[in-house]
Design goal:
Blueprint: H1 5-19, E1 28-31, H2 44-51, E2 57-64, E3 70-72, H3 103-106, H4 119-123, H5 139-147, E4 154-159, H6 172-186, E5 192-196, H7 199-208, E6 213-218, H8 228-231, H9 237-240, H10 244-251, E7 255-258, H11 265-273, E8 277-280, H12 286-295, E9 299-302, H13 305-319
Parallel strand pairs: 1-2, 1-9, 2-4, 4-5, 5-6, 6-7, 7-8, 8-9
Antiparallel strand pairs: 2-3
Helix pairs in contact: 2-5, 6-7
């Protein structure tokens, strides 16, 4: 087989480039659900543990109670996989909905452990359960905890609403204004990213508080968002024949947040050309983390911020 001089040069250049340590200093480490791979999700205990790591952003999910208290919780209804009653019994079925409970009623439940019989427990084998009952915290409590930290971390707050009326979800109009009021009261509106799969939240927030950064989540194949037009606030991305970066830019977003398996180099390049940041979710394997760093993403959302911190630190030391 003949090997031309140009082939040789190309091969040498590729070898040199791949031998250069990755510049991962610009990749932000997002502790998903407060660091759910290490501690109970969306809890003050989990956030506190993640703050001891080298992270950049604490991610958390929010819902709202019947009496308009914003709390940290992933689902619109109580989840039996992570929730126990006052008798320390696992809930037998999902519910009730957050919006049908007062904050005081919600405090009866314990979220300090994953049900070991659930499939979810298999996804987070390194999570350490709390040794005492853990109540569902408020967003205000989480903000106060983070503000007392010596680390200059940012917040990523995911608004958990569902456009399907049967899901017993709060509406954007019920939660977004209350959220804005709290963020402004705490003086962190410039230090927070608000993101959601339900784009109605983001469009409303941009209208009411344009100073707050919005992050548009997407998932074509990973989640059962068959009625994606509803999730995208009525925007039919297929009929419009637009890419996610183009549509999000048009809608006024600053960040695109796709599932890492749905991101391609071309889409990443397009997003960056449109001055959009690209953060990917949820990346827990070191191999996948490395691949995302190599691709050039801006942030990685992970249940294992400890593993990502180690990977980023190793790459930065190698490049210095």
């Amino acid at each position: 087989m003949r090997y031309s001089f140009s082939n040789l040069i190309t091969s040498l250049v590729f070898s040199i480039l791949t031998a250069v340590p990755l510049n991962s200093a610009a990749v932000d480490n997002y502790a998903h659900r407060g660091g759910a791979g290490l501690s109970p999700e969306n809890t003050l205990e989990g956030i506190e543990k993640s703050l001891r790591l080298k992270i950049d952003v604490i991610d958390m999910d929010i819902g709202i109670t019947q009496d308009n208290v914003i709390v940290l919780y992933h689902d619109t209804v109580l989840n039996p996989d992570i929730t126990r009653n006052t008798k320390q019994e696992w809930l037998s079925q999902p519910g009730p909905a957050l919006k049908h409970l007062s904050y005081r009623e919600l405090q009866q439940y314990d979220v300090g452990k994953i049900n070991p019989q659930s499939l979810y427990a298999n996804e987070l084998p390194a999570q350490q359960s709390a040794n005492k009952p853990i109540p569902i915290p408020t967003l205000q409590q989480a903000i106060q905890l983070i503000q007392t930290s010596s680390k200059p971390v940012r917040l990523q707050i995911e608004i958990k609403t569902d456009p399907d009326p049967s899901k017993q979800s709060a509406t954007p109009e019920q939660i977004v204004p209350t959220l804005i009021t709290l963020l402004r009261k705490k003086g962190i509106e410039k230090n927070v990213e608000i993101h959601s799969f339900d784009w109605r939240n983001l469009i409303l927030l941009q209208k009411l508080a344009p100073e707050i950064t919005t992050s548009y989540l997407s998932a074509d194949e990973i989640l059962d968002h068959s009625n994606y037009v509803r999730w995208h606030a009525g925007n039919d991305i297929k009929a419009l024949q637009q890419s996610y970066p183009a549509l999000i830019k048009q809608l006024g977003g600053k960040i695109w947040c796709p599932h890492y398996q749905e991101l391609t180099p071309d889409l990443l390049k397009e997003a960056h050309q449109l001055n959009l940041k690209v953060n990917v979710w949820t990346v827990d394997s070191p191999d996948d983390m490395l691949h995302m760093v190599e691709m050039g993403v801006d942030g990685i959302i992970t249940n294992r911020p400890d593993l990502l911190a180690k990977l980023l630190s190793s790459n930065n030391k190698a490049s210095s």
